[in-house]
Design goal:
The protein has 245 residues and is of the alpha/beta class. Helix content is 34%, strand content 22%. Helix 7 (221-230) runs antiparallel to helix 8 (235-243).
Length: 245
């Protein structure tokens, strides 16, 4: 099967629409989302409505948890806190219930999906110790699971482990998955990229060819920015979209 993997949409309707349009030409069989569907941008309900309508398999991110009222944004920076509290007020009851009912991690066929780290939604995979812990958790999962997909950093990345040795690739090229190796792969962010490229990012995993391909798309950024301003959200959230930071 060909599975599209998206993450960190953050209520960016224009970016999500552009990504879904591109997927049609890629002939994917299903779509999974690694969390943080809401926060930062101005269309939380519209994004969630599309994900639910398209039957996208979703897990809970830290912004989703706060928007649903499951947690409080005590450790959020001021921009993130303002946006998630605004989002909490905007969500319909149906969408709030949808978020509240999502799992934080999930196995799908031969791969595992989680938001920040395995067993810890809020922890980033940034350093070697983070990767080491997550490769150990991946190895401990029941059944053969050689690849995990994660988000949270908003940066496309691939980490590869073999015999306890870990190599890291930022902005990786397409990956051919080799036997005997384990992989932790981040598709980047749909709605608020932070790797210097403002285009929405996602990936496609082909479990028959054992290959991961990375994709970017163009989208109507100005429309998203105008909505942020019109909603009364912090203008900095609109500005940072153009820099991909």
């Amino acid at each position: 099967m060909r599975t599209a993997v998206v993450s960190d949409i953050h209520a960016n309707l224009e970016a999500l629409t552009a990504v879904l349009d591109r997927m049609q030409s890629l002939k994917v069989d299903d779509v999974v989302c690694l969390g943080d569907m809401v926060g930062y941008n101005a269309n939380p309900n519209e994004v969630l409505d599309i994900l639910r309508k398209e039957k996208v398999t979703c897990i809970l991110g830290n912004h989703d948890a706060c928007a649903a009222g499951l947690e409080e944004p005590e450790d959020f920076n001021p921009l993130a806190r303002a946006a998630v509290l605004w989002t909490r007020e905007q969500l319909t009851g149906e969408n709030r219930q949808f978020l509240a009912g999502l799992p934080r991690e999930r196995r799908i066929r031969d791969f595992f999906i989680f938001h920040g780290s395995i067993h810890d939604t809020d922890r980033y995979i940034l350093y070697r110790d983070d990767a080491t812990d997550n490769f150990r958790f991946l190895a401990d999962l029941p059944g053969p699971v050689s690849i995990g997909f994660f988000g949270h950093t908003h940066v496309r990345a691939a980490l590869i482990e073999q015999h306890g040795i870990i190599s890291t690739a930022l902005a990786p090229e397409d990956l051919e998955l080799a036997p005997g190796k384990r992989y932790l792969v981040n598709p980047g962010s749909v709605g608020q990229p932070r790797d210097g490229d403002p285009r929405p990012a996602f990936l496609v995993y082909d479990d028959r060819d054992r290959r991961v391909t990375f994709h970017h798309v163009e989208y109507d950024m100005r429309a998203c920015q105008d909505k942020i301003i019109a909603a009364g959200l912090p203008p900095r959230l609109a500005e940072r979209l153009q820099w991909g930071m």
